[in-house]
Each structure stands twice: as structure tokens, then as C-alpha cells.
Design brief:
five-stranded mixed beta sheet, D-Maltodextrin-Binding Protein, domain 2, 335 residues
Amino acid sequence: MTLWRTAAVTLAVVAGLAAGPAPAQEVETSFSLPATTFSFLPVYVADDLGLWSKRGLKVKTSVIVGIGSMNAVLSKSVDFTLSSTPTIIRANIRGQKVLAIASASDQASVEIVLRKDVADAAGITGTSPLEKRARALKGKKIGLQGLNAIPHGFLRYFAKKGGIDPEKDIQLAVMQPEAELAALKSKQIDGMAEVLPYSTIAAHGGAAIVIGSAPRGDFPELNPYANNAIAALPTTCEQRPKLCTDIVAGFAEAVAFTHDRPKEAADILRKRIPNMDEGAFDEAFAMTRKGIPRSLAIGDAGLKNAQELMVIGGMIKDEERLASFKDIYTNKFMK
């Protein structure tokens, strides 16, 4: 071998040693959310802090409104969704097999608010007996995002505690939360059934009071309550178990960060939902954080109560109940 060829080979070897092994290629996957709201804080934390990318995942996160998020998983256009547990239960009732692999919230975030002047006329406050607060809904026009969604289920559930028929005694106005807040102020609606933080925004603005609240403990009979969960097609986790393990592990780290470093987690959330009143934000954030369990394990008790809400709240018929939940969730992808 000539001198110049020997030198070239030596330089190539040294360069190769200096460079080290080639980095592993990122595994691409996708994650859909049904809204931009407080409940999905751990996903925002995982995204912003690179908790999935450090595990070799390139996660494309998108918002596909409402039931569209679950439909995207069922159609295989998205790998994972963070959706309500009732949505997961209802999909399985309809034969659309989807698997919950990690709990994301064990507390519902729905609150029912009533315009302050309407509440005053009915002689109720936020501390009046629950049944009296529920009866105040009779004849009122209530805003919500969608029919037969979780807030609608809770509205029906709450109304029945006051002995009124939610189908006959309440008028519904379907609109987006921002429109609901505007309609509340202009007195076009009497109240709304919404998830955090929209209820706290209404209350802190002085336009309304909270009369029924899951996160404030008005429905203890539904605890424990399986609220949101990470879900995928069973085949996704059967064929790519490491992917599901890494998704859950990144999410678990984000949950720990949310609990251990609340100020920084709140700053991440503010980027998604900016320009909120500070008091309304802090109140909604505290209730949301309380409802995010450190353990991501899913259990039958929470699913049973979620299904009970669905039946009483008119989201499914009594005869549609799942007799067993063993095929709709697993905890095996948790480290």
C-alpha cells in the first residue's frame, strides 16, 4: 500500500472513531387531542420538554376536535389519542375496539354555571343545597359544546338530582366555549356546562356562579371516576410494544413534572391558553393538577363510575352497559 493510501485509511479510521456510532433514527408516531384545554397539560409538558424525543420518538401532536380525535385512531390515521374514558367505553360498546393504556385524569373537569342575576332571582348561591341548585336549571337556556358529550352527560346527571327532566325542562344552545362566555355576558344564555377553565373564566368575570361541579366534589358517588386516558388500537401495541411503553413513560415523566414543578408546568400551559385572567387561571390549574394522578394505572372502579354517568346522563342505554372492562384497558406498558 502506498504511503498516501495508508495515510488516507488512517485518517478515515480516526474520523470514524471520533464521530462515534450513527444516532438511531427517530421512530415517528402521532398523537391527537380533542381540544386545547387544561386537561391535556401533561401532553403539552411532554412535547415542550422533549420527554418523548429523548426516548427516540418523533411525535406529531395535533388537535382534532371532539369525537374526531378518537375517529382518527379508529381509522388508523393517528396512532394515539388522549380522550375521555366514556368515549373509549362507547367505542367498544359499538364494536370499535380501542385500548386504554394509561390513565390521564381521575377527576372529571365539568362544571355547570348559572348567570349571577338568574341565580339571585332563584335565591341560590354556590353553597345552597345541591338539589335546590339543580332545580334552578328548570326553564333555563344552557350553552354547551356538543350534544351527548361529557358536559351534556353531567348536565343531565345534575338536573336529575333536582327532579327535573333535562330533555323537557332545559333548552340547549350548542356553541364553542368562547361564544358561550360572550352569550353569557350578553344574557343570550342563562348558563353553561363546560370543562375547566371556561367555568372559572365565567365565575371570575362576575357574570356567573358555579352551581354544580365535579372537581369541587359535588358528585362524590362517582368517585373514583376514570376521566381521560391514552388510547390506541390494540394492534398498535401488539405490533409495537416498545412504542406504547415509551409513550407511557414520557407521559409519566410529564405527570411527575406537573406535580413537582407546578410553576413551570403552569408556564407551559399559559402558552396554549394565553391571556387568561390570573385568578381564573390559578383556580382552574389547581383543580386540574389535583385531578392528574401520579399513578397512571387504570382500574375497574373508575370505569364503572364513568359508565354509570353515561347511563344516568343519557349517553348510552342501560342495556348497552359493558359487563366487563377487562378487554378495554391494560397497565402492562407502565414501567
